[in-house]
Design a protein that fits this description.
About 50% of the residues lie in helices and about 5% in strands. It is mostly helical. The protein has one domain. Helix 7 runs parallel beside helix 11, helix 8 crosses helix 9 and helix 12 crosses helix 14. The longest helix is centred in the last third of the chain and has 20 residues. The protein is globular, with a radius of gyration of 20 Å. The N terminus is likely disordered.
Length: about 400
């Protein structure tokens, strides 16, 4: 998943590395956190927080986290001391867009999983034939790109469903209750009682009718490998595009390239499902995430720049690389580590150069040959950054 991370980790994927919603509070400057604490005296929020503490018990939180882990959301990789990292414009955008959130808001949204509701809802219950999950912004370009991707990579892809997740679902008490029951194991009576209180709280104007991008700040590829995700539910293969992630990159000036790049990245995860790079036994292996995320980055760059893909010119490819840079992360010990910004840039640049050097230009490498070449290059892509020692 592409997320700020998140997925879950950030941005980012519910099976294969894509992630649940980004949780940026920890990255907020200390002064901002202090200001939030001073403002955190809203009676309604405090009352809801008390109800959540009583209802979303540690055991129920553990259930939702186990569901996430089982579908590839928990990752740890590499030694942060070896890599250059710093703030990205994406993280800056998150801080600015949530500047009016209080510390109690973050406790409700983050600690009790509210930021993940839309992702769980789409993963478990979504369908492209249901208007509630119909693509919104950029629907035309996403549909066109999806058709191109299906013809570009040599895997079975006619069973992949492309759909959206909309944050407005958090104002639907029926859907909120359903997520509480299925993902968290809350009994129906308790879930039906808690859901209206959550909806009332989330109706505050600062949450924009559920359309604040923080609720859907990710995209992810998903497969259940034909198995039950929860008792009685076997979702089909899908790619889910969050309204929030698309809005974020629109506002950052990447609206002409981000939808295609994000979709191509998530399609890359379905390539991995099909050729065995990700299996039910390896999906939650820590080092699997970095390899598969960087492979998906490379797959996207290859498709976007290839004459038989989207044939983006160098100027547009550079925009695309900038997108990858801003979503890189250095949260080495957090779930869903996708690779540093520099690593992601190197993966994309390698794929672009591979496409540029191929003859004839019309040749598309098979998914397995592309994987072989990528794996041969991976040690270079993930090599520690060169840090200049202080004099």
């Amino acid at each position: 998943m592409w997320s700020a991370v998140a997925a879950a980790t950030l941005i980012g994927s519910l099976a294969a590395g894509p992630a649940l919603a980004a949780h940026p509070q920890a990255a907020a400057p200390a002064a901002a956190r202090s200001a939030q604490l001073v403002r955190a005296d809203d009676a309604k929020a405090q009352a809801l927080l008390a109800r959540l503490r009583a209802t979303i018990t540690p055991e129920r939180l553990a259930r939702s986290r186990e569901l996430a882990q089982r579908h590839g959301l928990t990752r740890e990789a590499i030694n942060p001391g070896d890599y250059q990292c710093g703030p990205t414009v994406f993280r800056d955008w998150i801080r600015q867009s949530t500047a009016d959130f209080t510390s109690v808001d973050w406790m409700i949204l983050d600690n009790y999983g509210v930021l993940d509701y839309a992702a769980y809802d789409a993963m478990l219950f979504g369908s492209s034939s249901d208007p509630a999950y119909r693509l919104g912004a950029h629907a035309g370009v996403l549909d066109k790109t999806f058709r191109k991707l299906r013809g570009f990579w040599d895997i079975r892809s006619d069973d992949i469903d492309l759909m959206a997740m909309h944050g407005s679902m958090v104002l639907d008490p029926v859907r909120v209750s359903r997520v509480l029951q299925v993902a968290f194991g809350v009994p129906k009576a308790q879930a039906d009682s808690l859901a209206p209180a959550l909806v009332d709280y989330l109706s505050d104007p600062k949450f924009q009718g559920g359309n604040h991008p923080i609720f859907t700040l990710n995209a992810f590829a998903f497969t259940a490998f034909g198995r039950e995700v929860v008792p009685g539910i076997i979702p089909g293969d899908r790619i889910i595009m969050g309204d929030g992630i698309l809005r974020a990159y629109d506002e950052l000036g990447f609206g002409d390239v981000a939808p295609q790049a994000i979709l191509a990245h998530e399609f890359g995860h379905h390539v991995q499902f099909e050729i065995g790079m990700i299996t039910p036994d390896t999906i939650d292996a820590p080092e699997t995430t970095r390899r598969t995320e960087l492979h998906a980055d490379a797959s996207a760059a290859y498709f976007l720049s290839h004459p038989r893909g989207l044939s983006m010119q160098w100027k547009r490819v550079k925009q695309f690389l900038s997108v990858f840079y801003t979503i890189g992360d250095c949260s080495f010990t957090s779930p869903g580590h996708h690779g540093t910004p520099n690593q992601r840039m190197r993966a994309a640049e390698w794929a672009y150069q591979l496409q540029e050097s191929t003859r004839p230009k019309s040749l598309i490498y098979s998914t397995r040959e592309f994987q072989r070449r990528f794996d041969a290059q991976l040690p270079i892509i993930v090599a520690p950054d060169k840090v200049t020692a202080a004099a």
